[in-house]
Amino acid sequence: MTADRSRCIVEVSGLKLFAHHGVLAAEQETGQEFVIDIRLLVQEPRDDDIGSAVDYAWAASEAARVATASRHDLIETVAREIAKALLTDGRVASASVKVSKPDAPMPVPVGDVSVTVTIDRPGDGGQR
């Protein structure tokens, strides 16, 4: 990232999808709904053109693709794989991905369970 341009945050909230993640066999076989929130720290676009911006539609589509491409036991792994995929756009300095599992099997009533993973681009210094 260049020092002379400011940064902005691109967010996608509430991406709902159906996938087969979880430790229990029933979760892997039957599947369930997951909700994904994305927060990207990016370079501010050079001008008023989508070509110079990180497209939030791409971010949502990429997250959905990664989350449904394979099964994982842990939602931490799902969040990490999505963050890594979003960092393939060189304009993304940091990717934070929250994966929520609203219907997680729990021994007590809860509204939701979630995990957030943040990955900073190597060498970026985590500047925010």
* Total discrete domains: 1
Strand portion, in percent?
A: 25-35%
Which topology does CATH recognise? Answer: GTP Cyclohydrolase I, domain 2
Q: List segments where confidence is low: pLDDT < 50 over at least 5 consecutive residues.
A: none
CATH superfamily: GTP cyclohydrolase I, C-terminal domain/NADPH-dependent 7-cyano-7-deazaguanine reductase, N-terminal domain
The gyration radius over C-alpha positions equals 16 Å
Our count of helices gives: 3
Fold and architecture overview:
The protein has 128 residues and is an alpha+beta fold. The chain has a single domain, classed as GTP Cyclohydrolase I, domain 2, CATH 3.30.1130.10. It has helices at 25-30, 56-69, 75-86, and strands at 7-19, 32-43, 92-100, 114-120. It has a four-stranded antiparallel beta sheet with strand order 1-2-3-4. The protein is elongated and about 50 Å long.
Give a quick rundown of the structure:
With 128 residues, this protein is of the alpha+beta class. The chain has helices at 25-30, 56-69, 75-86, and strands spanning 7-19, 32-43, 92-100, 114-120. Helices cover 25% and strands 32% of the residues.
List keywords for this structure.
single chain, 128 residues, alpha+beta, GTP Cyclohydrolase I, domain 2, four-stranded antiparallel β-sheet, elongated
